[in-house]
Amino acid sequence: METTLRDPKLMVPSAVEAAALKEVAPVASASNGDLPPVQQKATSAEFADHSVTANGIRLHYVTAGEGEPVLLIPGWPQSWYAWRLVMKDLAASGRKVYALDPRGFGDSDKPQGGYDLATASDDIHAFIEAVGLMKNGGIDIVSHDVGTWIAYAHASAYPDDVRRLVVSEALMPGTPPSPVIPSEAQNVKSWHFAFNRLADLPEMLVQGHERAYLTWLFANKSVRSWTIDPVAMDEYVRVFSAPGAARAGFEYYRQAFSEEGLSQAKKRMTTKLDMPILTISGSESLGSIMEKNFSSLGTKVSARIIQNCGHYVIEECGTEFAGAVSQFWHDETIK
After folding, report:
1. Which of 7, 74, 66, 90 lies closest to 41 in space, CA to CA?
2. Which of 79, 146, 235, 320 has the fewest CB neighbours in a 10 Å radius?
3. What is the rounded average pLDDT for all residues in the chain?
4. Cα separation of 45 and 30, whole Å?
């Protein structure tokens, strides 16, 4: 059950709001019960902010459009905001879009624990039930990066929740094995996997340097780097600098590659997913590797590689990404 919050015009705008409000009027927000209001306000009249309690924590999400629901799960170190371009296109195509901040992301709660993928998948299931998205045959889910880790774990644990699954720019922890010493080019794109897993050190080194850290990641893992503009960077720095946010993000890596996390992954891989799966990757990032990875995890896997695109496909190539998703849904519907 959602209740309307105080008028957002009385709230102090974030950096991204300040830029957006020059052209766009503020929108209404919703929260659950007596929980404190989310700090981020949606930046377009097409979007609306909400939060709901699911699996014992508050999860923030943004909606757009009307029609059949689709759930979007972002990657690290981003938030729902990374989907803003894709959301507009999918909403325009006649879908109601739910862009979620998972546990530890964006303006959702950042508890001390629960960053293993089994718990994260329970969060997604609880969210689907709490918001009333459950339907016969499941709903469409689209994911990116760490959000793909979560979406795959959720689809494995709750296959009836998922009608069709789109995954982008991530390989599943535990498969395939990585070389001990990557090449220089590979190291630029993947060094943070090892760094993020270190206990305590990443938090100590990144604190106070959040903008420099994120700027380096976005610059070196993208091709169309201009798509992550100063307004977007301000928003990502804001959410990444929030109390507990950096630790929460690092914990996903620590848990996924821990002994228990890899044991969970091994169990998941014993049963292939049966729902249709589309992998989307950037030609200058994972390319064809993603399809090969997921072909061992699902029975109905197809792939789309977006040319001249890096890791952040949902922002770098938002229109192409939304088009690939819509085409996948169309093809699977007429089969």
Report:
1. 7
2. 320
3. 84
4. 15
What would the mean pLDDT of 224-244 be, rounded to a whole number?
Answer: 94
More confident residue, 199 or 225: 225
Closest CA to 295 of 315, 279, 307: 279
- 243 by DSSP, 3-state: which? coil
Distance CA 172, CA 168 (A): 11
For 311, which DSSP code? S
Q: Please name the residues in contact with 274: beta carbons below 8 A apart, sequence gap of 6 or more.
A: 159, 298, 299, 300
Closest among 184, 147, 182 to 71, alpha carbons compared: 147
Pick from 75, 68, 112: nearest CA to 93: 68
Residues 6+ apart with CB under 8 A from 98: 61, 62, 63, 69, 70, 71, 72, 131, 133
Nearest to 93 by CA among 265, 253, 333: 333
Q: Measured between alpha carbons, how far is 273 from 166 in angstroms, rounded to an integer?
A: 12
Q: What is the CA radius of gyration of the chain?
A: 19
CB 33 within 8 A of CB 59: no
Could you give the CA distance from residue 93 to residue 66 in angstroms, rounded to a whole number? 9
Mean pLDDT for the stretch of residues 86-101: 96
Instruction: Give 88's Cβ-side CA count (13 Å radius).
Output: 14
pLDDT band at 308 (very low <50, low <70, confident <90, very high): very high
The pTM assigned to this predicted structure is 0.85
User: What is the per-residue pLDDT across 176-194, written as a single tens digit (0 to 9) for each?
Assistant: 655 454 555 766 667 677 7
- Give the residue-averaged pLDDT of 121-138: 94
Residue 59 has a pLDDT of 98
Which of 266, 261, 250, 117 shows the shortest CA–CA distance to 193?
Answer: 250
